[in-house]
């Protein structure tokens, strides 16, 4: 076998093989030139793992043409060539709201409703959204007023009550099992899945803090005494905040405020227009699938895609960008039984009271028309989709957009994660600490290696290593966010959010318009399949363990 210093038969001194690299960084070798002249079949016969290792060692790979924030990352292979339909969610996907301005707006509107409709003290209208406090993926324990960060297996990593971090002893007392079962999520624990949840959760945390300082709240579901709000329970607070948040969404309060200053909350940069045009030119059928109502969708997409125009129907505007539009979809219900499918009369915005006879509509007659509700079954029938795996759906909600579509219908999914580049930057800042953590973990493994049943003394009796590990883990977490650490990891462990994302999102990226930078036949390759611990030992079949 060739070693890194001895090029293999293929003689590849430097060839960029990474899926994100558009151009080779060095093309000095003849084989490298042949690769880029299209002689791939020839190379496919001779390229060895050793070649690839040597390419990586001399820095020829891992040089990406796209910046980290512009890349589309893949958890699983996705061949865009096999994708016939690409669908888009609207809010926080096509419409990339400006943060924290949009969070602040929601926070203020929720506080206003709590004061005007629920009798909360007026001082809460002075409070502000704290951008550096909460992260997505936390579990909210409304019985106790706590936010819980868990790892991929539900192990409790950190708990914050209101805004106060709990000590290890307090965490143990509150969660003696040490982990949260997946069956509890959505029941006792609410998952903070979308960016919409952050201002809601922030109001809740601030109220918990306020009432803790001004009265004794009851930890538990029961409202013990209803005479004055000082005796509300943490759960009552959550019910009120939840109801206030629903009001700002369902009564159009948030949407009207957003539309009153669209340039502030949603500046138009043409990138979405460009992406849709390119995907259309690449032969993809495009569709819109949003939970927002038609009146709001019309205003937002009119703003973002105003340049779309159709000579035959000058009023069609943004609708021309899609082959098919569904508003008020009610995801995730849409992916199950769904609701009645109705057509919207676009010039009045009203749903029409006749049943849409799916079989009578041809795909060509759908362009520019807008439907409301429906279900995935009706959608597949209308569009003639037979295999869910030919659809790529782009959305920001790990549950409503991604998990159900992927799990139940095999749609391929692209999750939009606006926090991505901030996380990547923090990872860069934490690099040295992470290296130190690996060194300490190596030390721990070495201390135990080879011990058998005759061993009497426990290594690291004083717990110095344990203490040091804890200290470095905390410092890593602080690099991301001093309250909750990283979105995807807690030091070396992956979080529940990261776990769900890697399981259900085939692809992920910071903003949907990043798709514009890939050709319609692009093959997104996932990282080489992860090895299991027993596989990660070259020559292991000939080794003993001591
Ligand atoms: N009643 C509630 N509606 C909410 C809440 N959070 C978001 N929303 C609304 O959902 C859609 C999202 O649309 P999509 O394009 O992402 O599918 C949008 O209309 C929001 O106003 C909530 O907590 N309660
Ligand atoms: Mg959305």
UniProtKB/TrEMBL annotation:
<keyword id="KW-0479">Metal-binding</keyword>
<dbReference type="InterPro" id="IPR016695">
    <property type="entry name" value="Pur_nucleotidase"/>
</dbReference>
<keyword id="KW-0460">Magnesium</keyword>
<feature type="binding site">
    <location>
        <position position="89"/>
    </location>
    <ligand>
        <name>Mg(2+)</name>
    </ligand>
</feature>
<dbReference type="Pfam" id="PF05761">
    <property type="entry name" value="5_nucleotid"/>
</dbReference>
<dbReference type="InterPro" id="IPR036412">
    <property type="entry name" value="HAD-like_sf"/>
</dbReference>
<feature type="active site" description="Nucleophile">
    <location>
        <position position="89"/>
    </location>
</feature>
<comment type="similarity">
    <text>Belongs to the 5'(3')-deoxyribonucleotidase family.</text>
</comment>
<dbReference type="InterPro" id="IPR008380">
    <property type="entry name" value="HAD-SF_hydro_IG_5-nucl"/>
</dbReference>
<dbReference type="InterPro" id="IPR023214">
    <property type="entry name" value="HAD_sf"/>
</dbReference>
<feature type="active site" description="Proton donor">
    <location>
        <position position="91"/>
    </location>
</feature>
<dbReference type="GO" id="GO:0008253">
    <property type="term" value="F:5'-nucleotidase activity"/>
</dbReference>
<keyword id="KW-0378">Hydrolase</keyword>
<protein>
    <submittedName>
        <fullName>5'-nucleotidase</fullName>
    </submittedName>
</protein>
<dbReference type="GO" id="GO:0046872">
    <property type="term" value="F:metal ion binding"/>
</dbReference>
<feature type="binding site">
    <location>
        <position position="91"/>
    </location>
    <ligand>
        <name>GMP</name>
    </ligand>
</feature>
<feature type="binding site">
    <location>
        <position position="396"/>
    </location>
    <ligand>
        <name>Mg(2+)</name>
    </ligand>
</feature>
